[in-house]
Amino acid sequence: MMNQRPILLEAVGLKKYFPIQRGFFRKTVGHVRAVDSVDLQIHAGETLGLVGESESGKTTVGRLILRALDLTEGTIRFRRDGQVVDITHIPRSELKWYRRDASIIFQDPFSSLDPRMTVLDIVGEPLRIHGLAEGDKLREQVRELLQLVGLRVQHMNRYPYAFSGGQRQRIGIARALALKPKLIVADEPVSALDVSIQAQVLNLMRSLQQQFGLAYLFISHDLAVVSYISDRVAVMYLGSLVETAPVDSLYATPRHPYTEALLSAIPKSDPDDTKTRIILPGDVPNPANPPSGCRFHPRCRYARMVCQTERPALREITPGHHVACHLAEELKLAGVAPPEGIRESPSGGK
Ligand code: SF4
Q: Which of 62, 122, 214, 268 lies 20 to 30 Å (CA to CA) from residue 74?
């Protein structure tokens, strides 16, 4: 299925290698290939879910896209005022406009907010740094932002410790929204919250997306959460994408064995569903010394000889569905019904 919305951000061949240094003189003895040739596109107004186990490189992709980390290799293009701008080599000091267009929601609402700052200071700081508001105008804009995320404006002089986890994440969302971004990288934004609060925050994010045409790169290890909010999903394993597809297609008809295993681990809501969880053998290999050929082959129950020597390219096998597996056309993998989702807390406890 073709996405009709324009591409907002395109990343091509993203690589991030971190040097491994040893000895008194910190000699470089190798590299951790945290991100290794990732291509992705995010369309205006859509949510791209990025999933994978911890250490898969998904958080590093988010930081590269925000230009919070320097790339080892690759290209990032961003649509600005109808023009496609290559931001790969623009010095960070000249990317102030990009800090307005692309922002972040952090994972842990308990540690990401400065405990010494009031809500007014936290939410208003980006406006002040970018010279957009001061004094009464700043207070007015913070008041508006707090209303948008469902917080009481009379609490703007309180400190973060006075709020629950869900409320703190709303403060983080208000701050991320302050500069009217077009893209928000949300890095595990609900994983530190109670399940009953997760749906409230996800519903808020969806509502803000509809109001302001925001695009999200939604990074998570939780496939139930990802299915709830995403239009498309990209699956990452050991620094590379192994499958991308529209959300329904990915869950119902996965084409990569790693995706099949991840889906099998989603808790079942139907007690009659007897499908068993696929337990992957071994651990995630060391990204400093990845396996030859298909990086998933030591853990793949379908692997053949070719998988040990030839690295499969990510290729489109049906419209919009891309897979990096030699056997993608041949394997009949088990999907799941899209998870029912996460129920909102009846108490409305925010
Ligand atoms: Fe498994 Fe081979 Fe496909 Fe890799 S290429 S996922 S090892 S079947």
A: 214
